[in-house]
Predict the structure.
Amino acid sequence: MNNFIYQNPVKIVFGKGQIAKLPELIDANKTILMTYGGGSIKKNGVYDQVKKALAGRKLLEFGGIEPNPRYETLMKAAEVCKKEGVSFLLSVGGGSVLDGTKFIALAANYKAGDPWDILAKQATANEAIPLGCIITLPATGSEMNSGFVISRESTKEKLASGNPLVYPLFSILDPETTFTLSKEQTANGIVDAFVHVMEQYMTYPVYTPLQDRQSEAIFLTLIEEAPKVMENPQDYNARAAIMWTATQALNGLIACGVPQDWATHMIGHELTAFYGLDHAKTLAIVLPGILRHQLKNKEKKLLQYGQRVWKINPTKSDATLKAIDKTEKFFRSVGIKTKLSEYGIGKEKFSEIADRFRRRGMRLGEHQAIGSEQVIEILNLCL
């Protein structure tokens, strides 16, 4: 087991009706900016619950944050924060809204130049507006970590960063807020959470029996609960299980002491930047390609995963490939395609995508074995 330090300060407020606890969670003297996305919170009743809970408070609003939150939009919100003296941010929506809100929290106080440098140059921001969130789409795990991913329309880039200052002070998780999610949104969330675990698990053994079994428990929970929630969107127990599972997938706990990969995400971000594909859809496409490309490097964990999660006999010569096939079939079972060609995407941009990694001096994967040439090879396996 590798050395690690683990600390997570987020207060989780889980269950039915917990939005009503907002007055207890936010200081009465704060000027609050509520951030949200396309307006679904006004249709599912969440907006009204927030307004009722915070009646009498100084509450401003900023809507329109995109599913892949755009720098250009977020900077408008940062200006609102400066102009209005916002002292607390309340993110209401999915992980994209929360990611965007984390960036707003940093950008509003950033004085060292272009706030995009926080992502493009990994510049350190030393101040942040405190924030909390109400999660209505379980997927990213952003409600219990300090990371965020932001897109910039003008440069067609999608980059990730993190800062301990933007851990949410609290995260409200009410499974009933997810009842009105479409099947596509639900499926995207399931795939997103599944691949988050893969990035931390599917590497090489370092004797972490507890962390491995925690990861495998998340896989099995998603596999078991996915068909229930796809069939009955208002199954509270299934929604609750998936919501808590998505949080556990990326709150840092299963990452303790283990090597991590994240190549699927890095390549997937470029597919979103170039083609506008949903984040989870890019993950479902890229992960099988990476697993097949890195078969030897990941063989031991693939055999363990196949045996423990999919009951595949590890002594069979094709056990690793069967494990990959089972994973791909699971993604398809919730309605997510796994090939670029199914979205009408060919190889025309592959060299351009790979060149971005070369120019950034980036090598991907737990062994740093994936360079620009390997990125092209992986993308070809995704066709």
About this structure: The mean pLDDT is 96.
